[in-house]
Write a structure and sequence with these properties.
Blueprint (H helix, E strand, L loop, with lengths): L1 H10 L25 H14 L5 E2 L2 E2 L14 H4 L4 H20 L8 E2 L2 E2 L3 H5 L3 H7 L6 H8 L16 H8 L5 H12 L1 H7 L1 H15 L1
Parallel strand pairs: 1-3, 2-4
Length: 215
């Protein structure tokens, strides 16, 4: 996903776009897991302090985000009780508030724009099932991907249990699916424009980043 977003943000006026894995070095051998909020927050705050001209964001899946007391991300447990449209926003608001409090009163609130994907990054790939299948070199899977997509008004509605989360559905169809390899190739093939047209929450996040790049 980093490639399509980088190119899009460059076109919006950003001079540099980098992605980094959140969490300390000892945790990085656990690829694919979402780090505890304490470790993630330390990285975010450190980056904001070291580069005081940057705009920072997150791209983290609601599905699989720790919700327990010791590792949980702010608002994650409470969000389980909310309707779909409010789940990710509720977590984003709590994340933003926590970082603002850590940074202090002089912090420019628009320098951190958190994004929580509903329910998972893979949901975005169902925006164009043909391009998804072509991007991973499996055109034969288009129909199966489309059958999943047709059950929902938006790809962001594809839900978040151990069986029905977007990545779990993909793995049932394609057992060797890799988020890093196949997910990145599919995102490049689909493109940001198609994803945002089908995914309202993703579109809202991009609009915030676009406005900051043009300001």
């Amino acid at each position: 996903m980093n490639g399509p977003l980088r190119e899009h943000l460059f076109a919006c006026g950003y001079q540099r776009v980098d992605a980094r894995l959140l969490g300390n070095a000892r945790q990085r051998n656990r690829r694919g897991g979402i780090k505890p909020w304490g470790a993630a927050k330390r990285d975010i705050v450190r980056h904001l302090k070291e580069d005081q001209g940057c705009v920072a964001s997150t791209l983290v899946d609601f599905y699989g985000m720790p919700a327990d007391e010791t590792k949980g991300w702010p608002g994650r447990s409470e969000a389980n009780t909310l309707e779909l449209a409010k789940k990710a926003t509720a977590v984003e608001e709590k994340i933003l508030l926590d970082v603002q409090q850590e940074m202090g009163s002089g912090f420019g609130f628009n320098r951190f724009v958190p994004f929580v994907a509903i329910h998972e990054f893979e949901g975005l790939l169902f925006s164009d099932c043909g391009a998804f299948a072509d991007g991973i070199g499996r055109a034969d899977l288009k129909g199966k991907f489309q059958a999943i997509r047709d059950q929902y008004n938006s790809p962001e509605e594809i839900n978040d249990s151990n069986i029905t989360a977007p990545s779990k559905r993909i793995q049932q169809i394609m057992p060797n699916y890799s988020k890093v390899l196949h997910g990145s190739k599919a995102a490049l093939e689909i493109g940001v424009a198609k994803m945002r047209s089908d995914c309202p929450h993703f579109d809202e996040w991009l609009k915030k980043l676009e406005a900051l790049g043009k300001s």
